[in-house]
Specification:
heterodimer; A: mainly alpha; 7 helices; 79% helix; 0% strand; B: mainly alpha; Rna Polymerase Sigma Factor, Chain: A; Arc Repressor Mutant, subunit A; 2 domains; 9 helices; 74% helix; globular
Chain lengths: 160, 186
C-alpha cells in the first residue's frame, strides 16, 4: 500500500459512521476483507462501535443462513431429456449457423450480384431488338424515311 | 484433447463446440444441479426450473460456438443464458408462485435437526420469496451461487452500481424480515 493509499484509508476511517457502514454492509456483504474500499475503516469502526458490531454480526448470520440453503438437486429425468434432444437441436443449429454465416459475410456481394443481374434484365428487355433480327422493323424505318423525303420534295416544289 | 473430469469448463466447451457428447455430459454434470437450484429458487417452481434448465443446456449445446473467453467464465455465460430465459418466462407468466411451499415440498423438514434451524430456514425462504425477482436473482447469484458482484452484474446485464443497489435493497429487506420476525417470535 502506498503512502497515498494509507492517507485515503485513514481519511475513510475518520469519515465512516454507522450509517455508511450499514450501507456498505448491504452493498458488499459481511466479508469486510473483500470489500473493494474502506475495509480498514470498517474493521476499525466495527471494533469500537457496538452498533456497527451488531450490524456486522447480523450480516454475518444472514450470509451464513443464505449459504446454508439446502441444495435442490434436479430430477434425473431432466438430464435424460436434455441428452435425448441434442440431435434435433444441432440440426436446427447447422441451418441457423449457415444462415448467419450467409447473413454476416455474403450478403453484400450477393446483393451486388443480384442488383447487377436485375439491372441487366431491365435494360435488356427495354432495348429495341437488333435490326437484322427484325425485318418488319427495318421496313417500317425505310417507309418512314421515304415519307419524310417525299414531304421534303413537296415543300421544295411549293417554294419554287 | 480428451474429455476428462479434471478438464476446465473452457476445455469442455471447446470440445462441445465440435459435437463431443462426453464433454457435454461432463459439463452438464458439473452445472445442472447448481443451476437447477438457482432456477428453482428464482422461479419458485420446480417444473419451471426443470424446463428452464433443460432449455439452457440445449442452448449451450446449440450455441457453444458463440462463447468467447474474453466475455467471462463459462459458468457466467451459462447463468446468463439461464437468466435471460427466466426474464422471458417472468414476462409471460402472470400467476404468483409460492416459494415457501416449494421449499417445504423439497425439504419436508427432517433434513433439519433442530426446530430453531427449521424456523430460521422457513423465515429466510419466505423472505426470499417476497423479494422482487431482480433482487432475488442478485442475492441468489452472489450469496448462494458465489458469483462476484461484477460477474452477477454481467449475468443480469446490469452495470455494477445497479447490481450493488439491487443487492443492498435485497439484503436490507432480508435482514429486516429475518431478524425482526426472529425478535417477534421470542
Amino acid at each position: 500500500m502506498t503512502e497515498h493509499d494509507d492517507g485515503a484509508e485513514r481519511e475513510g476511517a475518520a469519515q465512516m459512521d454507522e450509517t455508511t457502514f450499514a450501507r456498505a454492509l448491504d452493498r458488499w456483504g459481511s466479508r469486510i476483507s473483500q470489500w473493494p474500499e474502506h475495509a480498514a475503516a470498517a474493521r476499525e469502526l466495527s471494533e469500537r462501535s457496538a452498533t456497527a458490531s451488531h450490524l456486522l454480526r447480523q450480516a454475518e448470520q444472514l450470509d451464513a443462513q443464505l449459504s446454508r440453503l439446502p441444495q435442490m438437486t434436479a430430477n434425473a429425468l431432466v438430464g435424460q431429456r436434455i441428452t435425448s434432444n441434442l440431435d434435433s437441436r444441432r440440426q436446427v443449429d447447422l441451418l441457423d449457423r449457415l444462415f448467419q454465416w450467409f447473413a454476416a459475410s455474403c450478403w453484400r456481394p450477393s446483393l451486388a450480384a443480384a442488383a447487377s443481374l436485375l439491372l441487366g434484365f431491365v435494360v435488356g428487355t427495354g432495348m429495341p431488338v437488333a435490326a437484322e433480327d427484325s425485318l418488319a422493323e427495318e421496313l417500317s424505318l425505310l417507309v418512314l424515311t421515304a415519307t419524310i423525303e417525299v414531304a421534303t420534295e413537296e415543300e421544295i416544289a411549293d417554294e419554287f | 484433447m480428451s474429455c476428462r473430469s479434471d478438464s476446465s469448463d473452457e476445455e469442455l466447451l471447446s470440445l462441445v463446440r465440435r459435437g463431443d457428447r462426453l464433454a457435454f455430459a461432463e459439463l452438464m454434470q458439473r452445472h445442472l444441479d447448481p443451476l437447477h437450484a438457482y432456477l428453482a429458487r428464482l422461479m419458485a417452481s420446480r417444473s419451471d426450473a426443470e424446463d428452464l434448465a433443460q432449455e439452457t443446456f440445449l442452448r449451450i449445446w446449440q450455441k457453444a460456438h458463440s462463447y468467447h473467453r474474453q466475455r467471462g467464465k463459462v459458468s457466467t455465460w451459462i447463468y446468463r443464458i439461464a437468466h435471460n430465459l427466466c426474464v422471458d418466462t417472468f414476462r409471460k407468466r402472470s400467476e404468483v408462485s409460492n416459494a415457501t411451499a416449494l421449499e417445504t415440498a423439497y425439504y419436508p423438514g427432517d433434513h433439519l435437526e433442530h426446530q430453531a434451524a427449521r424456523e430460521a430456514h422457513s423465515r429466510l425462504a419466505s423472505a426470499l420469496a417476497e423479494l422482487p425477482e431482480n433482487q432475488r436473482a442478485a442475492v441468489l447469484l452472489c450469496q448462494v451461487r458465489g458469483f462476484s458482484n461484477a460477474e452477477a452484474a454481467q449475468i443480469m446485464a446490469l452495470n455494477l452500481t445497479a447490481l450493488e443497489s439491487l443487492l443492498a435493497r435485497a439484503r436490507r429487506k432480508l435482514r429486516e424480515k429475518v431478524f425482526i420476525d426472529e425478535g417477534d417470535s421470542r
